[in-house]
Amino acid sequence: SDAISSVAYATQEILFILILAGTSATTYALPIAIGIVSLLGIVVVSYRQTIKAYPGGGGAYIVAHENLGAAAGLIAASALLIDYVLTVSVSIAAGMDALASLNEAFRPVAVEMAVGLVAVVALINLRGMKESGTIFAIPTYAFIGTLATAILVVLVKILFHGGNPLVAGAPRDHVTAVQGVTLFLILRAFANGCTAMTGVEAVSNGVQAFKSPAPENANKTLLAMALILGSLFLGVTLIARHLGFVPSENNTIPSQLGAEAFGAGSPLFAFLQIMTAGILVLAANTAFADFPRLAAILARDGYLPRVFHARGNRLVFSYGIIVLSALASVLIIVFNAQTTRLIPLYALGVFIGFTLSQAGMVRHWRHERGESWVRKAITNGVGATATLIVAIVILLAKFTEGAWLITIVLPVIAFATWLVGRFYGRVRRNLFVTPEAVFDLKPAGTSYVPVVVPIEDINLATVMALGSACERTRDVRAVHVMVDPDHPSTVPERWASQFPNIRLVVIDSPFRTVADPIANYVEELAHTPPYEVQVLLPVLEVRHRYERPLVNQPLRQQADERLGDRHRDVRRLGLEHPEV
Questions:
Q1: Is the Cβ–Cβ distance between 294 and 59 less than 8 Å?
Q2: If both were cysteines, with which of 263, 304, 374, 475 could 298 make a disulfide (CB 3.0 to 4.6 Å apart)?
Q3: Of the candidates 101, 141, 309, 320, which has an alpha carbon nearest to the alpha carbon of residue 224?
Q4: φ and ψ at 457, to 5 degrees?
Q5: How far from the centroid of its chain's Cα atoms is residue 474's Cα?
Q6: For every residue of 244-272, which 3-state class applies, written as one string?
């Protein structure tokens, strides 16, 4: 839905630029659309190779980070994060345009409705409601079927009356030329139309979601999606050019096409507009799946605060969902839910991601040197070159219309993630404990109350926390939760040799939460003599206040949520490392 939904506004955005040069300029709409579809074919061929090379999911961040280095990976990740935020704001705003085309009464309350829709989609995702494939497929297939039917009906009408759909017609509304037809105008229109390609990378990002054999099924889906997208985009542009449709926010190009095919007051026309709004909301929902996942991957790799990798009670990445909804809502409010004002911000980040991903694949094939690696490298090289050229065109053509903002925000985000990565790298170095080190810690306190110490990794904080626990009681229990089967922990393997006198309890958490398994274990201990349990959480003290959000939050917050109704005796033990 993310890619196909762009048909709802891509042609319109091309025409918004061309009509600045008057009637004659709309002739260029079809050649521009053909150029964009050709570019789509290049990108699809390139991404089909990415899917085969990265069957576990080959997003631009992963491919660029592994093959081009951390800097390229962070730039790609920043571009994707911006793209996901804009996907929500643009899709919801375009959905308001579709509803306003059905009834102009929606326009005055477009901002309020758009923000409300963002909140509803965020709430659904926060509750962890697993979407039903059947229910979510209805708007997508209904939109495809209804729009394709409208295109065919209008084409038949044109041919039946002896017309030639390849001939451009005069605009139906009066158009005043404010400038001449120039190469720069054509490039601006092309840059606007490239929004049709947003969402193409979604399939390669989520290969692991497909049935086995996943790469083959993902490639079939990518090809089918590209054929549907290209056909609908060309069909809408062809008819809009021939019949002289003039775009407006209260009468979009798809709505004019639907009125021409079914009649403005017909049930089918209303159905097309509602399904258009529906698929655009689904496109926004796609970003609510991808943004938190990418943020969690970045947090796992140490480039975002670790709270983004923590799952909430509903087993979703709550912080990513909240941040995405907040940023998208701000954009909708600032740009008054106007799609045309948001579009200049949109495509640049997408094509930067395309370019870095395909350049990374060239490096991947050169390193692997497997079967037909030269042909594969050339294919991805062509894709990287084409998308780089388009990114430059978009930057130049849309710079004064808002793309300049992306040139500021993207490096700032990339630099911020680099700073976060440097902080976590310093923490890891300061807390590092060699695997060969053996700690002769023995529980030697005067109490027999069990002390539970949650263990995430074996480091200096672990050693200091266990040392404090051993001074308190004769019953120390380290608890380690296995939360990520894709990245198995080495703690159980190292424990027996490094802490021979302290027992380790390993809990497998298939739902990838930490606090609940520990809390359940604590509750079980509390029901046995001496009917009391102490939990000791190691806490890092940092130099600066602005570094505090980067440490301690996930486990402490989850513990507060899970054990908040129980008595807690919290003491600051003053465990400080001089370098942290």
A1: yes
A2: 304
A3: 141
A4: -150, 165
A5: 49
A6: CCCCECCECHHHHHHHHHHCCCCHHHHHH
With tokens 């060699």, the residue in question is 434
d(CA 195, CA 233): 11
- DSSP code of 201? T
Judge whether residue 283 has pLDDT over 60.
Answer: yes
Residues 442-467 have pLDDT tens digits of 988 888 899 999 988 899 988 999 99
DSSP conformational letter for 473: B
Residue 481, helix vs strand vs coil: strand
Query: Where does the pLDDT of residue 36 fall: very low under 50, low under 70, confident under 90, or very high at 90 and above?
Result: very high
pLDDT tens column, 48-60 = 888 888 887 768 8
Structure tokens at 291: 């943004």
Place of tokens 């901002």: 111
For the record, the structure tokens of 461 come out as 């904080």
> Which letter does DSSP use for residue 177 in this model?
-
DSSP state of 482: E
pLDDT band at 478 (very low <50, low <70, confident <90, very high): very high
CA nearest 8: which of 199, 191, 255? 255
Alpha-carbon distance 339 to 97, whole Å?
8
Which residues neighbour 544 within 8 Å (Cβ) at sequence distance 6 or greater?
none
- Number of C-beta neighbours around residue 404 at 10 A: 15
Question: What pLDDT, on a 0 to 100 scale, did the predictor assign at position 57?
Answer: 73
Question: What tokens appear for 497 in the block?
Answer: 């040799």
**What's the rounded Cα separation, in Å, for the pair 459 and 432?**
5
